UniProtKB/TrEMBL annotation:
It is a multi-pass membrane protein. The keyword Transmembrane helix applies. GO terms for cellular component: plasma membrane. This is Na+ driven multidrug efflux pump. It is found in: Cell membrane. It comes from Liquorilactobacillus ghanensis DSM 18630.
């Protein structure tokens, strides 16, 4: 009976987090299509230049949100007073960090963009977009922190509603600002800036949640708690950051091997991957608070059941996704290939069946990393994250690309995810067999 209850609870958390993660990924794709329509190739180029900055701000939000909410989940039952002010402390710290980002984005715009590789053709669009979006840095970070704490306080339904409402609002504002008000790319920036406000307003309803243990007390950050949150969230930070770094290396190698259309084909594959990985992120984020809670209760059997459930769901999703992508690759590619470039279609069609073999490993890897964070083993989660996004992947892109051309580039992600799964499986066997190691 207890196992059935646990499986039902896991299913609820997973479903809600998949919906929220899918909402975010679909918003990114629709936003990209709107900008492409409004500002053309220059707009897309400017967006790609600014994205690493936005990616970094999001990564800081995850760093504090996942790390802090994990501490909260582990301690809220047996040591509630220890974490009573943790949310308020991290919120203050995150807002302060966000203010620094806003100042840098507006006072050092040109040097920052030059560091990211801007040229004169895209400088104007990129500058105005960065200045507007960076104004909301504190809001973005506060939203990431709040979403994670509310979810880990047993209210995943509210976080799903907040995320989907945020996504829907941004899409509507995108259309209004870009096409009705004719603000162009700046309209997309303003729509993005307002988005976390919608989410935060909805999340305030958590104060009426009957089982709420989360409290908001603004106190000066205690650095040992901030540091503990940073340690637990660092693997998620690196995972998020690896997206931007990986795109940069992919682009450099593809430019050398096959030129612009190969890069464009990777852009198509990367957008598709964003949606597929959102499914796995939803599963991993869904099981994380439950595993952290069971770790706080020292219920090792329950932790194993939750982890296995997450991995099985990821494998089923991988099979369905891979079949759909291979069978319907041409219609999917044409959604992004507005100008119907034949080379782009050929490169992407050849890459999809190879690149997406990786999804049979990716979901399990994300679950294993979240499991390591939940059982208070951030160093091992960090080790997997470093290998997955940097140590194995980046050399694999370059070496396999030089040895086997485009096919080697597409398979580099498969190699990286496969090796990381072997490492993660070793850690799982070690800690699940001997819980005392925790």
């Amino acid at each position: 009976m207890q196992t059935k209850i646990l499986l039902r609870e896991s299913g609820g958390y997973i479903a809600r987090n998949i919906a929220a993660s899918l909402g975010i990924s679909l918003y990114v794709i629709i936003d990209t299509l709107f900008i492409a329509t409004a500002a053309g190739a220059d707009g897309l180029a400017a967006l790609n230049i600014v994205l690493p900055v936005f990616n970094f701000i999001s990564s800081v939000g995850l760093l504090l949100g996942i790390g802090g909410s994990t501490i909260f989940s582990i301690n809220k039952v047996h040591a509630g007073t220890k974490v009573a002010t943790l949310y308020g402390q991290l919120l203050l710290f995150g807002i302060f960090v966000g203010i620094i980002f806003s100042l840098l984005g507006n006072l050092a715009t040109r040097p920052l963009l030059q560091l990211l590789g801007v040229d004169q053709q895209t400088l104007g669009l990129a500058s105005s977009y960065l200045r507007i979006v960076s104004l909301g840095a504190s809001l973005f970070i506060a939203n990431y922190i709040t979403v994670n704490f509310v979810r880990n306080d047993g209210n995943p339904h509210l976080t799903m509603v907040a995320t989907l409402a945020e996504t829907t609002t941004v899409i509507c504002l995108d259309y209004l600002f870009i096409f009705v008000f004719n603000w162009g790319m700046n309209g997309a920036a303003w729509a993005t800036l307002f988005s976390p406000l919608v989410s935060l307003m909805i999340l305030t309803r958590h104060r009426k949640f009957p089982l709420r243990q989360l409290q908001l007390h603004f106190t000066w950050p205690q650095w040992h708690l901030v540091w503990q949150a940073v340690q637990l969230g660092f693997a998620s930070f690196l995972t998020e950051m690896s997206t931007g770094v990986g795109i940069l290396v992919f682009n450099l190698v593809l430019e050398k091997i096959a030129g612009t259309y190969a890069i464009a084909a990777y852009g198509v594959i990367a957008n598709i991957a964003l949606v597929v990985l959102a499914l796995f992120n939803g599963v991993a984020l869904g099981i994380q608070p439950l595993m952290a809670r069971e770790f706080g209760n020292r219920a090792w059997k329950n932790i194993k059941i939750i982890l296995q459930t997450g991995i099985v769901v990821c494998i089923v999703l991988a099979i369905i996704s891979y079949l759909c992508l291979v069978l319907f690759k041409y219609p999917i590619i044409e959604i992004f290939n507005i100008e119907h470039q034949r080379d782009l279609t050929n490169y992407a069609a050849a890459g999809i069946p190879l690149y997406f073999i990786s999804i049979f490993f990716s979901g399990s890897n994300l679950c294993l990393m979240m499991w390591l964070v939940a059982i208070n083993q951030p160093r091992y989660a960090l080790f997997l994250s470093l290998n997955r996004g940097y140590i194995i992947l980046l050399p694999a892109i370059y070496l396999l690309g030089m040895w086997y051309g485009l096919n080697g580039v597409w398979l580099s992600v498969v190699v990286s995810e496969g090796v990381v799964l072997l490492l993660g499986s070793f850690f799982a066997q070690r800690f699940l067999k001997n819980p005392l190691l925790n």
